[in-house]
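Listing S7. Sequence submitted for prediction.
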Amino acid sequence: MKQMEEKIFREFLEKKGCKLTKERGAILREVFSNRGHFDPEDLFFKIREKGMKASRASIYRTLQLLLECGLVEQVERVDKHAHYEHIFGHEHHEHLICLRCGKVIQLFSEKLERLQEQLCKKENFRCVSHTLEMKGYCEKCSGKRA
Protein backbone atom coordinates (compact mmCIF):
# COMPACT_ATOMS: atom_id res chain seq x y z
CA MET A 1 0.00 0.00 0.00
CA LYS A 2 1.19 3.46 -0.79
CA GLN A 3 1.48 6.07 1.94
CA MET A 4 -0.82 8.41 -0.01
CA GLU A 5 -3.86 6.14 0.47
CA GLU A 6 -3.21 5.94 4.20
CA LYS A 7 -2.74 9.71 4.43
CA ILE A 8 -6.00 10.37 2.57
CA PHE A 9 -7.90 7.88 4.73
CA ARG A 10 -6.37 9.17 7.97
CA GLU A 11 -7.34 12.78 7.08
CA PHE A 12 -10.85 11.66 6.10
CA LEU A 13 -11.26 9.84 9.42
CA GLU A 14 -9.98 12.84 11.40
CA LYS A 15 -12.59 15.08 9.74
CA LYS A 16 -15.24 12.60 10.92
CA GLY A 17 -13.78 12.56 14.43
CA CYS A 18 -12.46 9.00 14.02
CA LYS A 19 -9.01 7.43 14.16
CA LEU A 20 -7.07 5.00 12.01
CA THR A 21 -7.19 2.10 14.46
CA LYS A 22 -5.05 -1.02 14.24
CA GLU A 23 -8.04 -2.90 12.77
CA ARG A 24 -8.77 -0.22 10.18
CA GLY A 25 -5.09 -0.12 9.26
CA ALA A 26 -5.04 -3.90 8.71
CA ILE A 27 -8.17 -3.70 6.57
CA LEU A 28 -6.78 -0.78 4.57
CA ARG A 29 -3.50 -2.61 3.90
CA GLU A 30 -5.33 -5.74 2.76
CA VAL A 31 -7.71 -3.77 0.51
CA PHE A 32 -4.77 -2.12 -1.24
CA SER A 33 -2.82 -5.36 -1.55
CA ASN A 34 -5.73 -6.82 -3.55
CA ARG A 35 -5.64 -6.76 -7.32
CA GLY A 36 -9.06 -6.61 -8.86
CA HIS A 37 -12.39 -7.22 -7.16
CA PHE A 38 -12.92 -8.70 -3.71
CA ASP A 39 -15.76 -9.26 -1.28
CA PRO A 40 -15.87 -8.66 2.48
CA GLU A 41 -15.69 -12.38 3.30
CA ASP A 42 -12.53 -12.81 1.20
CA LEU A 43 -11.07 -9.83 3.03
CA PHE A 44 -11.98 -11.30 6.42
CA PHE A 45 -10.24 -14.62 5.69
CA LYS A 46 -7.16 -13.02 4.12
CA ILE A 47 -6.70 -10.80 7.16
CA ARG A 48 -7.01 -13.80 9.50
CA GLU A 49 -4.61 -15.88 7.36
CA LYS A 50 -1.99 -13.17 7.87
CA GLY A 51 -2.42 -13.33 11.64
CA MET A 52 -4.14 -9.96 11.88
CA LYS A 53 -7.43 -9.39 13.65
CA ALA A 54 -10.49 -7.63 12.30
CA SER A 55 -14.11 -8.50 12.93
CA ARG A 56 -16.59 -8.83 10.10
CA ALA A 57 -18.45 -5.80 11.49
CA SER A 58 -15.23 -3.74 11.39
CA ILE A 59 -14.61 -4.83 7.81
CA TYR A 60 -18.08 -3.75 6.69
CA ARG A 61 -17.84 -0.44 8.58
CA THR A 62 -14.37 0.27 7.21
CA LEU A 63 -15.44 -0.54 3.65
CA GLN A 64 -18.30 1.94 4.05
CA LEU A 65 -15.81 4.58 5.21
CA LEU A 66 -13.51 3.78 2.27
CA LEU A 67 -16.49 4.18 -0.08
CA GLU A 68 -17.35 7.56 1.43
CA CYS A 69 -13.70 8.59 1.22
CA GLY A 70 -13.54 7.67 -2.50
CA LEU A 71 -10.74 5.13 -2.18
CA VAL A 72 -12.89 2.11 -3.10
CA GLU A 73 -15.89 1.49 -5.29
CA GLN A 74 -18.66 -1.07 -4.95
CA VAL A 75 -19.24 -3.33 -7.94
CA GLU A 76 -22.51 -5.19 -8.45
CA ARG A 77 -22.04 -8.84 -9.32
CA VAL A 78 -24.43 -11.46 -10.59
CA ASP A 79 -24.36 -13.27 -7.22
CA LYS A 80 -25.86 -10.12 -5.62
CA HIS A 81 -23.11 -9.96 -2.97
CA ALA A 82 -21.25 -6.71 -2.49
CA HIS A 83 -17.87 -6.71 -4.23
CA TYR A 84 -15.35 -3.91 -4.10
CA GLU A 85 -12.21 -2.67 -5.79
CA HIS A 86 -9.76 0.02 -4.82
CA ILE A 87 -9.79 2.84 -7.33
CA PHE A 88 -7.34 5.41 -6.05
CA GLY A 89 -4.57 5.97 -8.60
CA HIS A 90 -6.22 3.73 -11.19
CA GLU A 91 -7.53 4.68 -14.60
CA HIS A 92 -11.33 4.90 -14.58
CA HIS A 93 -13.00 1.92 -16.20
CA GLU A 94 -16.41 0.41 -16.78
CA HIS A 95 -17.53 -3.16 -16.12
CA LEU A 96 -18.92 -5.82 -18.43
CA ILE A 97 -20.59 -8.45 -16.22
CA CYS A 98 -21.43 -11.96 -17.46
CA LEU A 99 -24.88 -13.04 -16.29
CA ARG A 100 -23.96 -16.73 -16.44
CA CYS A 101 -20.51 -17.12 -14.87
CA GLY A 102 -20.21 -13.76 -13.09
CA LYS A 103 -16.98 -12.82 -14.85
CA VAL A 104 -16.22 -9.09 -14.70
CA ILE A 105 -14.32 -7.60 -17.63
CA GLN A 106 -12.80 -4.17 -17.11
CA LEU A 107 -13.36 -1.86 -20.07
CA PHE A 108 -11.19 1.22 -20.59
CA SER A 109 -12.74 3.59 -23.16
CA GLU A 110 -11.72 7.18 -23.87
CA LYS A 111 -14.75 7.49 -26.19
CA LEU A 112 -17.14 6.63 -23.35
CA GLU A 113 -15.40 9.06 -21.01
CA ARG A 114 -15.66 11.87 -23.57
CA LEU A 115 -19.32 11.08 -24.25
CA GLN A 116 -20.15 11.16 -20.53
CA GLU A 117 -18.36 14.51 -20.20
CA GLN A 118 -20.27 15.92 -23.20
CA LEU A 119 -23.62 14.75 -21.81
CA CYS A 120 -22.91 16.35 -18.44
CA LYS A 121 -21.76 19.58 -20.07
CA LYS A 122 -24.91 19.70 -22.21
CA GLU A 123 -27.06 19.40 -19.08
CA ASN A 124 -24.88 21.83 -17.06
CA PHE A 125 -24.25 18.98 -14.64
CA ARG A 126 -21.08 18.69 -12.55
CA CYS A 127 -20.40 14.98 -12.24
CA VAL A 128 -18.27 13.89 -9.29
CA SER A 129 -18.39 10.15 -9.99
CA HIS A 130 -20.11 7.65 -12.21
CA THR A 131 -20.38 3.92 -12.80
CA LEU A 132 -21.38 2.04 -15.91
CA GLU A 133 -22.10 -1.67 -15.78
CA MET A 134 -23.12 -3.60 -18.85
CA LYS A 135 -24.65 -7.03 -18.28
CA GLY A 136 -24.70 -9.79 -20.83
CA TYR A 137 -22.71 -12.91 -21.70
CA CYS A 138 -18.96 -13.30 -22.03
CA GLU A 139 -17.43 -15.00 -25.06
CA LYS A 140 -17.23 -18.35 -23.27
CA CYS A 141 -20.85 -18.26 -22.06
CA SER A 142 -22.52 -16.62 -25.07
CA GLY A 143 -23.04 -19.97 -26.78
CA LYS A 144 -24.51 -21.54 -23.61
CA ARG A 145 -27.55 -19.28 -23.14
CA ALA A 146 -30.76 -21.15 -22.41
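Caption to Listing S7: primary sequence and predicted C-alpha coordinates for the chain studied. The beta strands are 72-76, 82-86, 94-98, 104-107, 133-136. The mean pLDDT is 85.
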